Input
Amino acid sequence: MLLELDGLHVHYGKIEALRGVSVAVEEGEIVTLIGANGAGKTTTLKTISGLRRVTSGAIRLNGRDITRTPGHVRVELGVSQAPEGRRIFPGMTVVENLEMGAYARGGSGRARLGAEFERVFSLFPQLAERRTQPGGTLSGGEQQMLAIGRALMARPHVLLLDEPSMGLAPRLVAQIFAIIAEINQQGTTILLVEQNAAQALRLADRAYVLEVGQVVKSASAADLLEDESVRAAYLGGDVAS
Amino acid sequence: MRLPRVQLPDFVGAAGAVWQRTPTWGKWVIGLAVLVVAVLAPADSVGRIMAPASDWKSILFFPIAVYILLAVGLNIVVGQAGLLDLGYVAFFAIGGYSMALLGVDQHWSFWAILPAGIAAAAVAGVVLGAPTLRLRGDYLAIVTLGFGEIIRVTANNLTFTGGPRGIAGIPHPPSVGHVKALQYGVLDPKPYYYLTLAAIILVVFVVRRLENSRVGRAWVAIREDEDAAQLMGVPTFKFKLWAFAMGAAIGGMAGVVWASKVISITPDNFQFILSVLVLSAVVLGGSGNLPGVILGGFLVAWLPERFRGFASHRDLIFGGALVALMIFRPEGILPSRRRRAEMEEGQAGLGTLGAADVTAEASP
Output
């Protein structure tokens, strides 16, 4: 088991955002969390990265308990995230943004990161063309690519992707999803949060359905694609058919 | 009726582009030229142009040089790490009172007090920062504003700080040999100006080194997007505390140097307005960009003195000049390349006072 969430409870003040979420991610998998707005998908990812504090429950990475480990140490341990809304550093150039992605690995030499730059630029050739452009001036699609590329610079064991399709044109979404599949084939485990459930389920191996802070269903992605209630709620399918 | 939008020729932008293309040795030459000007600045002929209505040598030390030193220090907190500090005067006061208390009561020499005052201010920065740096944006601004007032009010009410009457008889730094520029007395402000100039040069060197280090990159990341910085593995709290302590240390240094000249200090020397003026120097000059911040410190200190001939209207004119500058150059006179991109994006850093982060924090 690479990443394991065990009965996570997380609060925002008095509001309970996660009510006992348990998720398991095996090495090499693509696992997706789907669900409506406010179901707790983003909170789950933020909690894994250490941006939210756990009330009770445990997070384990490779069997090691990281529930109380500070967020910046978790990056060193191999958890990396491309957050919701991309959160690119607007004043830094593409290259500087990517360098920040490798921050947890120490040092700053551009030469030392050569292999990582090469990998990111071959996955996203568009970024190579924009090397010296400030991140804030990129298009939405390019920013999403940069966000994923930046997260890859840390050489993560598990890559957390929060709504990579948000606000992008359908053709771009298809392109981004194809690249996610490729990243996974290169050996990075992926935990993907998506509102675009149909796309996510076609890409993923397994999926969890979140509703108001709880996992209400978990199954292989293929099974969920056929599931009546999931089709009705998230895939715009007709219940009667 | 709409006013036609005036597009001014962007001389500064053009100069900035030239500066970026200038090779490193060229920048050193320019830096050296600025230094020569700074060393020759106390000449009477310069004073007749720069400040006909004031004693130029006096104002060259205070406010000009002291404001520049303070602006460079506050720039670490506001310009580099993007933390809005409205109580910076507190650290200046702690430096000043260190000089006064240790000099008058303990008879320490200036050179012993200087590191002690810097350390005291840095510790105060950590003490203030540790509980408050979990706050963001305007919340942090309010707490720091309160801290600035607390230090002044405390000094006003304690007996060992002399209460509202303050402390008198503060010693000067010991004179060095028989060099005229190093005779620290009552009348000649020139030696104090050179002392402050040396402090500015030292601090600028340290800050420059920091800017290009891992610490500096972490500060930029925190300024642009604190959550994203944390996701990159930046220990954000630790580096924010570092920025606070460094800024505070420089504020304390300025306080010690200033108090070593003035003989007597009172709590009224450390009003809120000083925090505001130094902050406006940073923002006006170009938050995050050292040459800009130095220029900002100079202008905020010098303009009111230059307008002294206008008597009571001078604050009005000074205020008008500030407003005009902020309309035509909201990113500051000499902004850094990054800062410009951040402003265009309309997010991050001081632009939104971190408000975007606060809302992100509130929604699940």
In short: Chain B has a mean pLDDT of 88. Chain B touches chain A through 31 residues (CB under 8 Å).
